[in-house]
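can u do me a favor
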């Protein structure tokens, strides 16, 4: 009886594991879409997995959503730009506008403006230095900001137009150089450019970037509708895979060993890394036209995308305050600018 009991117990565990695997292997799909009326253009979305927030700059302000409930939380007024980065230690956030806006993530109140000598575009919090990095299409290419007080802590001139960047957390930064069709490798210890990896004839216009830190792999998402997979140590091209049209964001999920690229044509490409030398397009997920940037929720393994839906003939709405959003609803659309709906999509299993 004891032997039978153990066998049934093991069988139950096997069935449970099978169910978990089946759930993880199920196709990606849009799980939810939250809409919020407003006006102005958008660029990047930032998912703060630790604090469970989503940040979307639009029209001179930054809208904040709850990463779990998908609900609108509030607006950081007079803090806008391209994207947002958050320092988990100081709870200070920064938006890559001109000037850069600094805010308190708890109160959603603006703290100050930070003047930088460049044209801010991309942005990220870099854990090795503990600094917020501003990426620019003009010199200086990289600006380091101390998140404690918002002071400029240094600059690094990489050359070329910087797009997305990824840190290995150990002192190396990899950056898309869009107009050079290269990936720059930056030593953050010396604040020098070590080298630049060429993406080859099929790697035109890198805009999104994923990094597998453990296996030293880069995934460059290019406007040529290709993902170029490279060895992060020497720049050797390992694979070229097709993606959709109009990429402007990407990443890599170490929990699932999947790279991903969001495209303006309303698709999200999922690339599976079966081994450090084997890659394949696992799925092309229908999203929504215009959803070209994305961010990763590492807790729920969900990908967050944004786009806007221009409403024909709509009047410009009144400025949004920190009051709850009464006009929020579910739905979808495309387009850019405003007035119209800001669409935030949650994609997962």
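np, heres the sequence
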């Amino acid at each position: 009886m004891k032997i039978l009991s153990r066998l049934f117990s093991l069988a139950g565990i096997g069935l449970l594991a099978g169910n978990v695997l089946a759930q993880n292997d199920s196709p990606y799909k849009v799980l939810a879409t939250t809409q919020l009326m407003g006006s102005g253009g958008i660029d990047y979305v930032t998912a703060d997995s630790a604090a469970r927030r989503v940040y979307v700059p639009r029209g001179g302000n930054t809208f904040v959503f709850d990463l779990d409930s998908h609900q609108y939380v509030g607006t950081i007024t007079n803090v806008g730009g391209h994207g947002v980065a958050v320092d988990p230690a100081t709870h200070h956030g920064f938006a890559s506008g001109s000037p850069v806006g600094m805010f308190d993530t708890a109160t959603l109140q603006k703290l100050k403006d930070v003047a930088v000598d460049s044209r801010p575009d991309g942005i990220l919090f870099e854990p090795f230095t503990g600094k917020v990095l501003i990426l620019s299409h003009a010199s200086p290419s990289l600006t380091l900001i101390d998140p404690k007080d918002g002071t400029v802590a240094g600059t690094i001139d990489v050359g070329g137009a910087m797009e997305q960047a990824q840190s290995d957390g150990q002192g190396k930064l990899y950056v898309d150089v869009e107009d050079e069709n290269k990936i720059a490798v930056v030593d953050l210890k010396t604040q020098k450019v070590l080298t630049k990896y060429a993406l080859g004839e099929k790697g035109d216009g890198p805009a999104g970037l994923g990094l597998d830190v453990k296996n030293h792999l880069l995934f460059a998402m290019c406007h040529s509708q290709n993902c170029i997979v490279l060895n992060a140590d020497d720049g050797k091209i390992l694979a070229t895979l097709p993606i959709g049209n109009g990429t402007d964001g990407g990443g890599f999920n170490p929990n699932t060993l999947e790279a991903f690229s969001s495209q303006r044509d309303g698709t999200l490409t999922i690339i599976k890394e079966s081994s450090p030398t084997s890659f394949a397009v696992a799925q092309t997920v229908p999203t929504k036209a215009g959803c070209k940037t994305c961010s990763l929720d590492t807790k729920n393994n969900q990908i967050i995308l944004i786009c806007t839906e221009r409403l024909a003939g709509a009047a410009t709405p009144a400025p949004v305050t920190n009051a709850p959003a009464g006009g929020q609803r579910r739905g979808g659309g495309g387009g850019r600018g405003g007035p119209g709906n800001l669409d935030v999509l949650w994609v997962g299993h």
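The radius of gyration is 21 Å. hope that helps!!
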